[in-house]
Amino acid sequence: MNEIWKKPPISLEVYESMVGREIGVSSWHLIDQNRINRYADVIEDHQFIHVDPERAKRETAFGTTIAHGFLTMSLMSIMSYEVMPVIEGTTMGVNYGFDKLRFISPVRAGSRVRGRFTLAEAKLRKPNELQSRTNVTVEIEGEDRPALVADWIGLIYFG
Hints:
- This protein is α+β, with helices and mostly antiparallel strands.
- The chain contains six helices and six strands.
- Strands 1, 2, 3, 4, 5 and 6 form a six-stranded antiparallel beta sheet that branches.
């Protein structure tokens, strides 16, 4: 469920005042073998390290299969819906890309991940277009090192 839609929207001024602050941390999301297999089918990447638990156990240092890095990255969308506020008057938001995206640690099948979001920048590019930059760390439950770190850019449009 996208928790964001349950929260009241905030003003643009309040959003801009959040720059430099951690906005929040999402709930935990399970990356089990079924999710990895379904993702592999969608993107047609069936490398054994993702979809063959027995071979991955025998032939890798991971001890099991691992999630595709892009699967972990794609979960940032639902994580952001849980954490990031909606700005009053928003008509839509679009993914504008990343200035940095690094896959730090493998996510083993059966692990849970969550996103930690810090608003790094919010600037109007046009009267009805806001560019927002968010620093995201995707943590792996019980691990010291994160799955990934990213500088994520979004464009938010107003009516």
